[in-house]
Amino acid sequence: MSTDSSASGEQPVETTDPGSVDADGAPFLQQPDDGSGHLELAAELRRLRGLVAGSTFEDVHDAVATVRELSDHLEKVGTRVNPFTYETWGVPEHIGANPAIGSRNPISPPLEPVVFPDGTVRVELTLGIEYQGPPGCVHGGIVALLFDEMLGLANAAAGSVGMTADLRVTYKSPTPLLQPLRIEARQIRTEGRKIWTEATLHTGDTLCARTEGLFIEPRGIRDEDRDKPIEG
Ligand SMILES: CCCCCCCC/C=C\CCCCCCCC(=O)SCCNC(=O)CCNC(=O)[C@H](O)C(C)(C)COP(=O)(O)OP(=O)(O)OC[C@H]1O[C@@H](n2cnc3c(N)ncnc32)[C@H](O)[C@@H]1OP(=O)(O)O
């Protein structure tokens, strides 16, 4: 499904063939740790994000100076990723920056998906106050973000990629903060470049939300079209 990534020297993130795993599921789209400390940095910033969004303070000007110093340092030592230069979907720099699944992105929970033999992709996660909408509940836009991503992953598990053309979310019951959540997604059918994919979000046995998405495979992304430019 991907274009040739050799020009960038990057390989797409390892995926798992849904037909070759046992009934417990297998890690899907695992993101490599390059050993630089990048993932630990992102994890620490996730902790910071929760503390900043979810605390009140008397005076944190000392913390402002510390964090500013850190930002200045990272700006100096890092090489900036240009989002317009990826050769394909799914290389670590692409997935790593993703706001839902990216292990390098402190905004992401992140998701750690597993895939089952029937192509179902599942994540289990718990969201903190930084994802709050109504008091004690997950923001509906965050639910939509997670659904969009999970539908995309189910498409990837089925060997396809698509741009979201239509995303319908039905919110059945408030999605609680600080409770284990489970999202399951599966591609339902395809017709030419059109892909229909569905997902549910549960806490325990309670259905919190469900979604149906229509995705359109970008022109030129199929194997036989690899030489043509990717659009969309
Ligand atoms: C072995 C596998 C390895 C896998 C490894 C991969 C790694 C995976 C990597 C990463 C996974 C994570 C994934 C992330 C997921 C995130 C997703 C997003 O956030 S996407 C951003 C938000 N969406 C947009 O910005 C779209 C904006 N819209 C567009 O660009 C176009 O409208 C587009 C591409 C959707 C369609 O444009 P056209 O020109 O290509 O196609 P036209 O001709 O318009 O439509 C084709 C058919 O679809 C229908 N169609 C199009 N849009 C429709 C709609 N909204 N509702 C109903 N039908 C629609 C049309 O009526 C047409 O149907 P008829 O062929 O005539 O039957």
Automatic annotation (TrEMBL):
The keyword Cell membrane applies. Gene3D superfamilies: Hotdog Thioesterase. Keywords: Apoptosis, Cell membrane, Cell projection, Cytoplasm, Fatty acid metabolism, Hydrolase, Lipid metabolism, Membrane, Transit peptide. Belongs to the THEM4/THEM5 thioesterase family. Residues 136-206 form the Thioesterase domain. It comes from Dietzia aerolata. Coiled coil: none annotated. The keyword Hydrolase applies. This is Acyl-coenzyme A thioesterase THEM4. It catalyses: hexadecanoyl-CoA + H2O = hexadecanoate + CoA + H(+); (5Z,8Z,11Z,14Z)-eicosatetraenoyl-CoA + H2O = (5Z,8Z,11Z,14Z)-eicosatetraenoate + CoA + H(+); decanoyl-CoA + H2O = decanoate + CoA + H(+); octanoyl-CoA + H2O = octanoate + CoA + H(+).
